[in-house]
Design brief:
Layout: H1 10-21, E1 25-29, E2 32-35, H2 36-52, E3 60-64, H3 69-80, E4 84-87, H4 94-104, E5 108-112, H5 116-122, E6 130-134, H6 142-150, E7 165-167, H7 168-173, E8 191-197, E9 205-210, H8 211-222, E10 235-238, H9 245-250, E11 260-263, H10 269-279, E12 283-286, H11 288-295, E13 310-313, H12 320-330, E14 334-340, E15 345-349, E16 360-364, E17 368-373, E18 387-393, H13 404-410, E19 411-414, E20 417-428, E21 433-439, E22 443-446, E23 449-452, H14 453-461, E24 466-476, E25 480-489, H15 498-508, E26 517-520, H16 534-546
Parallel strand pairs: 1-11, 3-4, 3-5, 5-6, 6-7, 10-11, 10-12, 12-13, 13-14, 25-26
Antiparallel strand pairs: 1-2, 8-9, 14-15, 15-16, 16-21, 17-18, 18-20, 19-20, 20-21, 22-23, 24-25
Helix pairs in contact: 1-3, 2-3, 4-5, 11-12
Length: 547
């Protein structure tokens, strides 16, 4: 399938690729191959079972599952049933899960057995009707399941036998599979999924991605390496999370062009190396932390990684030092890109048939229009002048889910076109190369994740001993930024330590949002109208780092 013959919805586009590549391997999961024909068959079965359970057109279904073949089957099955997928990270706690379930209005959830406990915990506080539970080994051969259980290699969770709990595996094998689903009538403007993103607000914001936007962006990003090899020959290491737009548009999208994806439930460097060597993987998708870890791994020279032809970095700016070391080691560059959930991934990507400057985050992709403007006046700025990046596309996201105030702040109309305000400071040279300069001070980039300072501050201030907090990112070459919290305690409070507050955060926040440092203050800098001045705290930390 190519960009020219893209269909109007995700499932039909995948089905068209499957019809063309039927017996070819679509997914490799824990050493087991799944052909395009088999994935289509399982996705159709799941869609039939969803319909039998009462799933209706437009229903939202949360996906709370790690990278796995089940994730792909569920995602495609949800599309085939005419519903809307709501993928979230499997390491969310009950606190995050409850918020997203209620904000999205989801009635169903697909979860793994290891996080089923959180699902049961929030069930009474949400609109969930059914939980569909899967184990990581559910549809692997019996002998692999037996090996995993016998040697305790597979995480296990308890599943209750209740009317509101269904087995994913049984949903694929039960029911009348000779029956047929109605013709799928989803148009390109219909919502396919809602992805939740961090940023500058207290709670994650839902970003509705339409079928047309996903297909346009995904095909654009998966075919950019076409000068290196034909897209159907691509074998992608799928270690990037599929709940994230990076993993969806640069890895999962290979299923639209007849390639293969190697899915890994979690990042394991030896498993990545072995998969590259065993399956002759051509594409690796990662964030700067992954590439640094690979370069510093003491067993890297024991594997043959020569099949890798396209290594792509997203999620954060790649340090020049890492790119130089990679070129010296493998005689190949790491190609960079820039994007956001709100833009459905790539706004810019480095062409593979050019010698890109080391610091470049690529050139604008064809489907996007951009402006670099003064963030106060929104007036355009000349070349080589840093300014806020605004992004427009024909099929663009136009609003956040149920967030009118955040929508008004993040989207703007200019010359009759709607633009998304990235709040990132970018410059562009005469040849069209874009360069990242700075980000909004209210957003922290840690290990490729965008993290809201406000969200962490809110959690800290819910602690009965805390009266005020300020959270900033501290630059760190290994992970982008580390999270540091400055806290003011109530006057009469005694004996509260940083460890106590970090423990409190662990109960409320997903692991990558937990502060690494806590510093106690008597007061925090504020403006005349009482607004917290994070920039002053950041400036203090910069001066401290400089000595």
């Amino acid at each position: 399938m190519t960009k020219k013959d893209a269909l109007d919805n995700i499932y039909n586009a995948f089905a068209a690729a499957a019809e063309k590549h039927g017996s070819k391997t679509a997914i490799i999961y824990l050493g087991t191959r799944f052909s395009y024909n088999r994935v289509v068959k399982l996705a159709e079965r799941f869609a039939l079972s969803l319909s039998a359970q009462g799933v209706e057109d437009g229903d939202r279904i949360v996906m709370y599952v790690p990278n796995s073949v089940q994730w792909v089957i569920a995602w495609l099955g949800i599309q085939r049933a005419g519903a809307v997928a709501v993928p979230i990270t499997p390491i969310y706690t009950a606190h995050d899960l409850q918020y997203i379930a209620n904000d999205s209005g989801a009635k169903y959830i697909v979860c793994s057995d290891t996080n089923y406990g959180y699902v049961k915990q929030v069930f009474p506080e949400t609109g969930f009707k059914k939980a569909i539970v899967t184990r990581l080994t559910d549809i692997l051969p019996w002998w692999k399941r037996l090996f995993g259980w016998a040697f305790d290699r597979v995480p296990k969770g308890k599943i209750a036998k209740e009317d509101n709990t269904l087995s994913f595996k049984k949903m694929l094998s039960s029911g009348n599979h000779n029956s047929h689903l109605p013709i799928l009538k989803k148009e390109e403007t219909d919502t396919a999924e809602i992805l939740y993103t961090g940023g500058t607000t207290k709670f994650p914001k839902g970003v509705p991605i339409s079928h047309g936007l996903y297909l346009e962006s995904a095909l654009e990003q998966i075919t950019i390496c076409e000068p290196l090899f034909p897209p159907p020959d691509n074998v992608v290491i799928g270690s990037s999370p599929l709940f994230h737009i990076l993993g969806q548009t640069t890895a999962l999208s290979v299923l639209l062009v007849g390639g293969s994806i190697i899915l890994m439930p979690r990042v394991n460097l030896d498993a990545i190396f072995d998969s590259v060597q065993r399956y002759k993987a051509k594409t690796l998708i990662g964030v700067p932390t992954l590439y640094r870890m690979i370069l510093e791994h003491d067993r890297i020279d024991l594997y043959d990684l020569s099949s890798l032809e396209y290594c792509f970095n997203g999620g954060d700016v790649l340090p020049v030092e890492i790119n130089q070391r990679w070129r010296e080691k493998f005689n190949k560059p790491i190609y960079q890109g820039y994007g956001a959930t709100e833009t459905c991934g790539g706004v810019s990507m480095c062409p593979v048939d050019e010698d890109n400057p080391l610091k470049s985050i690529g050139k604008r992709v064809p489907s996007k229009k951009i402006k670099i403007v003064d963030s106060e006046t929104l007036e355009p700025l000349p070349l080589n002048t840093p300014g806020e990046l605004l992004v427009h596309s024909e099929r663009m996201v136009r609003e956040y889910w149920n967030k009118p105030e955040e929508t008004e702040a993040a989207f703007v109309e200019i010359d009759g076109l709607r633009f998304y305000r990235t709040a990132d400071i970018i410059s562009m040279d005469e040849e069209g190369h874009l360069y990242f300069v700075d980000r909004t001070v209210d957003t922290i980039k840690h290990k490729g994740y965008r993290i809201s300072s406000s969200e962490i501050e809110s959690v800290l201030q819910e602690h009965p001993a805390v009266i005020g907090s300020c959270v900033v990112g501290i630059p760190d070459p290994r992970v982008g930024e580390r999270i540091k919290a400055f806290v003011v305690l109530k006057e009469d409070v005694k004996g509260i330590t940083g460890y106590d507050l970090i423990k409190w955060c662990r109960e409320k926040l997903v692991a990558y949002k937990i502060p690494q440092y806590i510093e106690f203050r008597d007061m925090l800098p504020k403006s005349k109208v009482g607004k917290l001045l994070r920039r002053e705290i950041r400036s203090e930390e910069e001066r401290r780092a400089e000595g």
